[in-house]
Amino acid sequence: MGVAVENIELVAGELRQRLGTDAVLTDEGLLDAYEADTYWKAIASRASGSPLGRPDLVVLAGSDEDVATVLQLANQFGVPVVPWGGGSGSQGGAILTHGGIALDLKGLDHIVDVDEVSLTVTAEAGVNGQRLEAELNALGLMLPHYPASAELATVGGYVAARGSGVLSTRYGKIEDLVVALRVVTPTGEVIDTLPVPRHAVGPELTQLFIGSEGTLGVITRATLGLRPLPPARRFEAVSFPSVPKGIAAIRDAIARGYRPSVVRLYDETATRLTLSPVVGEELDGVCTILCFEGDAPVVDAEAEGVLALATERGARILDGSLGETWWRRRYEFYRPPHHPELPAMWGTIEAVATYARIYGVYQAVRSAIEPYRRDGLTLRIHLSHWYPWGTMIYGRFVIPEAGANGIELHDRIWEDGVKAILGAGGVINDHHGVGLKLAPYMRAQHGPALDTLRRIKEVLDPNRIMNPGKLDL
Question: For the whole prediction, is pTM greater than 0.85?
Fold first, then answer.
């Protein structure tokens, strides 16, 4: 579905008058940068000359008022708007499948306030994650999020996709770190949610916008919880005799109150093909990286307690320097040569479930993807985010050569993977967002509850301009 040319021209002209000519981009070469995020299907389609979507124009916003102006005009003329941050999303959530305006938020790049008493930071949506962390670290503080995308991602993207970082087992996902938000609604109103989370004066409005991926409005500012930089970090590594024994050991540890900041459990294939090349050692079995942080006596007590529980489940204690190496190189997993490039195909089949169901989900995904080994597929699964009630699987698949039918093959792999997850009682995503990739499966996941989400969308976005085609809303 395209946008009427006359509407685009009217909106572009009005925006140039209100925001300045430099804020409105229509040059074809500049629009190219907004054709794909890191979703494989978007990258492959762009490379073939048939991108999944493309903006008609780009607006460089520099303030809340700029964003409000864009949304008011877009709503008036029925022009789609898609917020754009660092372009690091893996689900196609920022692809402009309906054309319209790519609203680039990187100009909202101010760290507004660091409250060292309350341990919060207020930052605009376009602030880069790595820059934010560096400035906080200089004050002896950290935002304990640390996603793999930090080099590219922005604060707005963290929140909009309901992301997670490597320290989530101790500190939680982004929704556990958000204190308050500023949002511009689809009709152009600027609203602030309450300045404390989990209050008792009605439903939690803040959480409504977390994970909404630009479908309910534009997040322009977030207040996030901080922690002091830990005085001590201790890394350990163990090898479990099997995935179920590893899951049981970590479940026991969390149930007893231990809170490691990192638990990275690699199955046998992921140990060999994913972990070993990055840390530079040949490893086998179900290798697990652990990190404990805080005051040194507490760190040591937690580490010894978790290691004791692991050995009760048959674990073999490895050299803890493996964990230190993993920490130093943790972003290398997502760069060549460790991360594939075209003409390869890749994707992450991600799921979360309770402890009672997670191994069944693991087995179901492995069984569903097994037939694609004939296409050269390898599946490497690790479990990296752990909760009191359950955990998740992060299954990276790679095919060295996608071939002429790559798009069709990609979609079949995903359909089989999702059916396996749902059939085993899992949830089809943990922290990467929904975007285009998982939108077709939202009805199967939510059932009639999806209609409730759609009604919320209809009230907030009556002309359906916000990121159409995403979340199946």
Answer: yes
Coil, strand or helix at 155: helix
List pLDDT tens digits, range 420-455: 999 999 999 999 999 999 999 999 999 999 999 999
**282 vs 51: CA distance, rounded Å:** 40
Sign of CA dihedral 38, 40, 43, 46: negative
**Residue 136, token pair as written in the block:** 């906080």
Residue-range domains of the chain with CATH: 5-106 (3.30.43.10), 111-228 (3.30.465.10), 232-334 (3.30.70.3450), 345-437 (3.30.300.330)
CA distance 13 to 333: 44
End-to-end CA, the chain: 16
Query: β-pairing, 178-184 with 232-240?
Result: unpaired
pLDDT in tens, 330-370: 988 888 888 999 999 999 999 999 999 999 999 999 999 99
Q: Would you give the distance in Å from CA 122 to the centre of its chain? A: 20
Q: For residues 222 and 47, give the distance between their C-alpha atoms in angstroms, rounded to a whole number.
A: 35
Q: Is 85 helix (H, G, I), strand (E, B) or coil?
A: coil
